Fold this sequence. Notes:
The complex is a heterodimer of chains A (108) and B (116).
Chain A (H helix, E strand, L loop, with lengths): L8 E5 L4 E6 L8 E7 L6 E6 L4 E2 L4 E4 L5 E6 L8 E8 L10 E6 L1
Parallel strand pairs in A: 1-9
Antiparallel strand pairs in A: 2-7, 3-4, 3-8, 5-6, 6-7, 8-9
Chain B lengths: L3 E4 L2 E4 L5 E7 L6 E7 L6 E7 L5 E2 L8 E7 L2 E6 L8 E8 L7 E3 L3 E5 L1
Amino acid sequence: xxxxxxxxxxxxxxxxxxxxxxxxxxxxxxxxxxxxxxxxxxxxxxxxxxxxxxxxxxxxxxxxxxxxxxxxxxxxxxxxxxxxxxxxxxxxxxxxxxxxxxxxxxxx
Amino acid sequence: xxxxxxxxxxxxxxxxxxxxxxxxxxxxxxxxxxxxxxxxxxxxxxxxxxxxxxxxxxxxxxxxxxxxxxxxxxxxxxxxxxxxxxxxxxxxxxxxxxxxxxxxxxxxxxxxxxxx
Lengths: 108, 116
């Protein structure tokens, strides 16, 4: 599976949009981009995934560049409860391998 | 999505004893489940893939005789840490693969193991 690169940490003001970038320059044509988040001492929570089109659900939006080498997860109106580690994963096989992720801190 | 539970949520045991952790898929029949381990301030590391009715597949460096996995039904997989030692203290998390074309995984809440 392709590797991903994410910033180690980011801050965001409460109520503002949080934009979390992810680079996956070695992604292959059949690999999906997945985003999960993990709040302290809990299991990872699924957020969203996509292949090449932009996706939106009740939690977030996923913007994938046309060349698919990078993507951005957007939390439109961040709240304090969105403070977590966010993982960007690309995969085609069943197993899912986590990188270090981005620690997002939403501040009042 | 799938609802996944784990039991116990936390456990403390003495060194040398064995501990069993259960992972249940409450609303989905899972032929494949995954076990992860997470040490403090680190990311999740895949330990093994649990296949219903067959032997588990272990990742490189994970001792199959120490971490016994049983996936006897489509809704239950168990991980037994045998002869636990303090270095086995960790957060153990299971996940269920929906098996759809998009292969979304849903994770359990995790089990914190502390070995004294």
